[in-house]
Write a structure and sequence with these properties.
The chain is α+β, with helices and mostly antiparallel strands. It is built from seven helices and 18 strands. A hairpin with a 4-residue loop joins strand 6 and strand 7.
Length: 347
């Protein structure tokens, strides 16, 4: 495993496991590492071990474009609210994967949009990540009132088990009337769990540093403009470019209007991490599924005709199919130049 969400393995079986459960096991009694590696704090003053003494602490590693983390958020948000008066402190550690996720303004925007009011440590230099010896987004660490890590979970799932751990640690700490039932959570939109029964596509980067299954006939030309074409047929989980693009290590950048990206996928949802090259620009795009407007299969960031706009760096949900789920082509045509595509994810 690398420092990625479980979906990054891009294997249907592993992706399915990630969607329905994850690694959860006791951690022994390791001392909670220092949070001093944080480069900034949001929603709070900097927190130290002394500030957290006597508190049960849940530390979650996240980055705001990660779909796997996004699907854990409604549960963490519910726990933070329900147990804050019982002595629980939730700390979200924002450790960026992409360079734009280091921009604190982007993180602040995400906090507002996603209703995250609990303390956030900005970990742009990976100081907190390394202190915890962490490797995954999302990762949850459960710390008791004596400052010991008692449990952890890597990846999505087992929300019942996680909440039971919180209840146990609060009870041990002497909290009164700790609930024993589960928090009511009703995820929707991008926060809805993946469907493991229909998930046959895994995370795919479009920058050459980590991409796979790139299938434009000429192959990749790195760090300089090139006109690409899309083959007549793509195999499952292959993708291709058409038009004038520059492939860079982190992203594919469109140089001229009319460029397209096509991906053959098998999943309910298609998400794409996108951003304008120039902050403040708005890049129009159109999504087609098997050559047609998506209609009722459109995602939250496009309309039924497939029209959307990239006006900030983040994750865009392009497709949410009502069914049936079969192999299909999704094509994103950009009507303006100056867009960067980073990463496909699925659900």
């Amino acid at each position: 495993m690398t420092k990625r969400s479980y979906m990054a393995l891009a294997l249907p079986l592993i992706a399915a496991i990630a969607a329905i459960g994850a690694v959860t096991r006791p951690f022994g009694k390791r001392e909670m590492p220092s949070l001093s590696g944080a480069t900034a704090w949001l929603n709070t003053q900097p927190l130290t071990a002394a500030d957290l003494k006597g508190k049960v602490v849940l530390v979650e590693f996240w980055t705001y474009t990660c779909i796997n983390w996004r699907r854990t958020l409604p549960y963490v948000r519910a726990w933070a609210e329900r147990y804050k008066d019982k002595g629980l402190v939730v700390i979200g550690v924002s450790t960026p994967e992409f360079s734009f996720e280091k921009d604190i303004n982007n993180v602040q925007r995400a906090l507002k949009e996603m209703n995250m009011g609990f303390p956030i440590a900005i970990d742009n230099n990976y100081g907190v990540w390394r202190a915890f010896d962490n490797e995954y987004w999302p990762a949850l660490y459960f710390i008791d009132a004596k400052g010991h890590i008692r449990h952890h979970q890597f990846g999505e799932g087992d929300y019942e088990g996680s909440e039971k751990v919180i209840q146990q640690l609060l009870t041990e700490a002497g909290a009164k009337n700790v609930p024993t039932d589960l928090s009511p959570v009703n995820p929707n939109g991008a926060e809805l769990a993946a469907d493991p029964n229909t998930l046959g596509s895994g995370e795919t980067y479009t920058g050459y540093g980590r991409t796979q299954n790139f299938s434009s006939p000429d192959g990749g030309v790195y760090d300089k403009p090139h006109v690409y074409t899309t083959p007549e047929h793509l195999q499952l989980n292959q993708w291709a470019l058409a038009g004038d693009w520059t492939l860079r290590e982190e992203a594919a950048t469109l140089n001229k209007a009319g460029g397209r990206i096509t991906y053959r996928f098998h999943a309910r949802d298609v998400n794409f991490i996108l951003g304008p090259v120039k902050p403040g620009d708005a890049v129009r795009f159109r999504v087609l599924i098997d050559g047609h407007a998506p209609g009722t299969a459109h995602g939250v960031d496009v309309d039924a005709q497939g029209n959307g706009k990239v006006n900030e760096q983040g994750m865009y949900q392009l497709i949410r199919q009502p069914g049936p789920i079969i192999d299909r082509d999704v094509t994103i045509e950009f009507l303006d130049p100056g867009v960067q595509g980073f990463d496909f994810t699925f659900g």
